[in-house]
TrEMBL record:
Location(s) in or outside the cell: Cell membrane; Membrane
Pfam families: K_trans, K_trans_C
Family per record: Belongs to the HAK/KUP transporter (TC 2.A.72) family.
Catalytic activity: K(+)(in) + H(+)(in) = K(+)(out) + H(+)(out)
Function description: Transport of potassium into the cell. Likely operates as a K(+):H(+) symporter.
Transmembrane segments: 12-36, 56-78, 108-129, 149-167, 179-200, 212-235, 256-277, 297-322, 343-367, 373-396, 403-423, 429-450
Protein topology in the membrane: Multi-pass membrane protein
GO cellular component: plasma membrane
Official protein name in the record: Probable potassium transport system protein Kup
Annotated K+ potassium transporter integral membrane domain residues: 18-465
Length: 639
């Protein structure tokens, strides 16, 4: 399948890139063997799965085929071939639907976009739950080594999480170089332990046949259905693979998955199944009991390192999703640090980082164990996966014009599987599955409120600013009402239809007009990156020679909008002469939001929108404007 922006160009994948991907994106799904089988056969589950030979074969077979269908087929083979100039993730799908879906059916496209926003909101829940459950599950292994150390699990987990989030500012590349070799050791180790377990009961290999999964579902549906709520834990991390695709690319992630991660995880699941068949008492912690007694403490340490990396996968994904959401208008402008000079997709978002850290620590202290968090985890993941599958097939139809029968067939099969997982998790609402839904609904409410509020503010600003062409006509009709002064000024504005409030105020109060006036609008296009040759568009607004120009500076939703650098791309023939950007002054209009009587939103949404606006990053810093030449003029707008 083509890239969303054109035919994909095959690039050589270096081993270092694959190693980096192993250290960033595979931690989540690669540590699922620690807790998946343990959770399925948990005797304290509200719908326990009895430990029997048939059930063990059926569960292991279901795990294997769930991984093959959801991860290998849905994500690696299908979804991850859809990139928006190399960027992936659910926000990239939303951007593509906004670009192409409206032409086919604006109402349907709007509903799909809303579904995508909710999927992104669920991913934020996933980003909070994954670090908590992953690190807890690994540190809990210490209880297998020495039961008396159980009281140290929660405080040790908290310390590890604080260190992890404190390290994020170093950047994805640094983290990947450190974590990649650790994950290679991890996958080789769990694969080896799994192979040893299989050797003790080779018959478990029969579970690779789909007949065992189908037979378990068909013959014991009452048990198998409820087990799906835990089996879905085996595919947790699939959504992070796609969200992190912009960091390493599809081919590097696909190679890492097929050549190392998938075989290692499958061997581990088979080995644990073989162990349970030999010793049913091992269901309490089959992953760690698969390791010889002398190696359990080193395995706990290695598992802890691996689960820290699992947390890294979703943290990195959360940065990408939040950044894209802000650029697409679903979140306030965020302060973003680019951590790589060579790879633009590698970013660090301080606000999201510290919010996640506080949230993760809250979950650790509130739930105390990985078992208590298991069903919350599954709901977050399966919700995002289901919506991603839906958006993928919608794009396949409206953009690639895939035959309707093929879309219906593919979507019917894959969504049926996703919805089975979703339905099973809904039965666990009272046991923790409510948590990601609450987080998702909260994030969804914030995102949709921000979008609606921005639209209301835009309408009000357009009314207050008035027509730009009309304003220029007034200036030309009464040149004696102001004096032209030397210099270049840049006024930031939302478009070329209205007059910047700062420009109106300058003429009204100072009665001056500079020789060169650039009215600049920032456009965020629904593509990740905009090349320099397409960055700038200039319009003389119908009056050549008056020194007033409108400039559109175009950026992708993954670009860092450095306005001075963009303006340096202007050619003298575009600007009626050279522009002295090194001496130019920049004028910004800031808006104080207050609640008004207009029925633009419900009162509680107005309060939420105004509160969220305080999180907006400083515009001058966001656009890279020189502080000593930036003037800010305020105004008040009612919403």
């Amino acid at each position: 399948m083509e890239s969303a922006t054109g035919p994909g160009v095959k690039q050589k994948v270096h081993a270092a890139v694959v190693v980096g991907a192993l250290g960033i994106v595979f931690g989540d799904i690669g540590t699922s063997p620690i807790y998946t089988l343990q959770t399925v056969f948990n005797p304290d589950d509200p719908h326990p799965v009895p430990v029997s030979t048939g059930n063990v074969y059926g569960v292991v077979s279901l795990i294997f085929w769930s991984v093959m269908i959801v991860v290998t087929l849905t994500y690696i083979t299908l979804v991850m071939r859809v990139d928006n100039d190399g960027e992936g993730g659910i926000m990239a799908l939303i951007a593509m639907l906004r670009r192409w879906g409206g032409a086919a059916n604006s109402r349907a496209a709007g509903l799909l976009v809303l579904a995508g926003v909710f999927g992104a909101a669920l991913f934020f829940g996933d980003s909070m739950i994954t670090p908590a459950i992953s690190v807890l599950s690994a540190v809990e292994g210490i209880k297998v080594v020495e039961p008396g150390l159980g009281e140290l699990v929660v405080p040790a987990t908290a310390v590890i999480i604080v260190m992890l989030f404190a390290f994020q500012r170093k950047g994805t590349a640094t983290v990947g170089r450190l974590f990649g070799p650790v994950m290679i050791v991890w996958f080789l180790t769990i694969g080896t332990c799994g192979a040893i377990g299989i050797a003790g009961h080779p018959g478990i290999l029969r579970a690779l046949s789909p007949t065992y999964a189908i037979g378990f579902l068909w013959g014991h549906f009452g048990i198998a259905f409820f087990s799906l709520a835990a089996i879905v834990l085996a595919v947790t991390g699939a959504e992070a693979l796609y969200a992190d695709m912009g960091h390493f690319g599809h081919r590097a992630i696909a190679r890492g998955w097929l050549l190392l991660v998938l075989p290692a995880c499958v061997l581990s699941y088979l080995g644990q199944g073989a162990l349970i068949l030999r010793d049913r008492g091992a269901i309490g912690s089959p992953f760690f009991l698969l390791v010889p007694a002398w190696g359990r403490l080193p395995m706990v340490l290695l598992a802890t390192a691996a689960t820290v990396i699992a947390a890294q996968a979703v943290i990195t994904g959360a940065y990408s999703v939040a950044s894209q959401a802000a650029q697409l208008g679903y979140l306030p402008r965020l302060r973003i640090a680019h951590t790589s000079a060579s790879t633009i997709g590698q970013i660090y978002v301080p606000g999201i980082n510290w919010l996640l850290m506080v949230s993760v620590l809250t979950l650790v202290f509130a739930f105390q164990s990985s078992a208590a968090l298991a069903y919350a985890f599954g709901m977050a993941v399966v919700g995002t996966i289901t919506i991603t599958t839906l958006l993928f097939f919608a794009l396949a139809r409206v953009h690639w014009h895939t035959p309707l029968w093929l879309v219906c067939l593919g979507a019917g099969v894959l969504l049926t599987i996703d919805l089975l997982f979703l339905a099973a998790n809904l039965t666990k609402l009272a046991h923790g599955a409510w948590l990601p839904l609450l987080i998702g609904l909260t994030a969804f409410t914030v995102m949709t409120t921000w979008q609606r509020g921005r639209q209301a503010v835009t309408r009000e600003r357009e009314r207050a600013e008035g027509s730009l062409c009309g304003f220029i006509d007034l200036l030309r009709a009464d040149p004696g009402s102001y004096a032209r002064v030397p210099g270049t000024v840049v006024f930031l504005n939302r478009g070329k239809q209205t007059t910047p409030l700062a420009l109106r105020a300058n003429v009204a109060h100072n009665h001056t007009l500079h020789d060169q006036i650039l009215i600049v609008s920032i456009e965020t296009l629904p593509v990740p990156h905009v090349p320099d040759e397409q960055r700038i568009r200039v319009d003389d607004l119908g009056y050549a020679g008056d020194g007033i120009l409108h400039v559109s500076a175009r950026f992708g939703y993954m670009d860092s909008p450095d306005l001075p650098s963009a303006l340096r791309l202007l050619a003298p023939e575009q600007t009626e002469g050279p522009v002295a950007l090194d001496e130019a002054s920049y004028f910004l209009s800031t808006v104080e939001l207050v609640r008004g009587p207009a029925q633009t939103m419900a009162p509680w949404r107005k309060r939420l929108f105004i509160a969220t606006s305080y999180l907006t990053a400083d515009a001058a810093e966001f656009l890279g404007l020189p502080r000593d030449r930036t003037v800010i003029i305020g105004s008040r707008i009612q919403v």
